[in-house]
Amino acid sequence: MKRILLLNGPNLNRLGLREPHIYGSVTLNELELQLKTIASSKNIELVCYQSNHEGGLIDQIHEAEVKADGIIINPGAFTHYSYAIRDAIASIAKPVIEVHISNVHAREEFRHTSVIAPVTVGQIVGLGLYGYELALLALVEKLGEEEKDEQN
C-alpha cells in the first residue's frame, strides 16, 4: 500500500475558526478525515501532520524519504520565506505537491512568491479545501506513473 504524507504548517490547526470568510468553516480534523476516506478508496494510506514549528515540518519531510511515497504540503506562511523547508524538500527523492486554500496571488503582495514551488511537482492554489483533494488525486496519479516507469 502506498503512503502519502499530508503536512500542514502554521495556523492551519485553526481551520474552521481562523478567518472563515477566507478559509471556510471546516476544521483541520474534518478535512483530514475526508481526505483519509478518499485515500483509502484509492488503496492509499494518508498520514497527517500539522505543526506551527518549522523544525517539526522539516523532520517529517526528512522521514518521508523512507516512510512515504509522496507529500502534500500546505506550508502556510513558511511558503514565502522558509528556505529550510525548501531545502528539505529538495533533499528527498519524493514527489511533493504544494497546496494553498486561498488564491495567494490575489492577496497581499508578500504572499505572491513561493520559495517552495520550484522544488515541487506542482502547486494548487485558490480552490479552497477542494485543492487538497485535487492534490491527493494528482499525487496518486503521479505515483502510478512512476510505478509503471519502474516496471518498464
TrEMBL record:
Taxonomically, which superkingdom?
A: Bacteria
Instruction: List positions binding substrate.
Output: N74, H80, D87, I101, S102, R111
- Pathway where it operates: Metabolic intermediate biosynthesis; chorismate biosynthesis; chorismate from D-erythrose 4-phosphate and phosphoenolpyruvate: step 3/7
Kindly give the PROSITE patterns that the UniProt entry links to this protein.
DEHYDROQUINASE_II
What keywords tag this UniProt record?
Answer: Amino-acid biosynthesis, Aromatic amino acid biosynthesis, Lyase
CDD domains xref list: DHQase_II
So what does this thing catalyse? 3-dehydroquinate = 3-dehydroshikimate + H2O
Has keyword Lyase?
yes
Q: Which Gene3D superfamilies match?
A: Dehydroquinase, class II
According to its UniProt record, this protein's enzyme class is: lyase
Give any GO molecular function from the UniProt entry.
Answer: 3-dehydroquinate dehydratase activity
Supply the InterPro entries for this chain: DHquinase_II, DHquinase_II_CS, DHquinase_II_sf
Q: Which residues form the active site?
A: Y23, H100
The site feature described as Transition state stabilizer is recorded at: R18
Which proteins does it associate with, and in what oligomeric form?
Answer: Homododecamer.
Instruction: Provide the family line.
Output: Belongs to the type-II 3-dehydroquinase family.
Q: What function does the entry list? A: Catalyzes a trans-dehydration via an enolate intermediate.
What is the name of the protein in this document? 3-dehydroquinate dehydratase
Provide the species name.
Bacillus suaedaesalsae
**Underlying gene:** aroQ
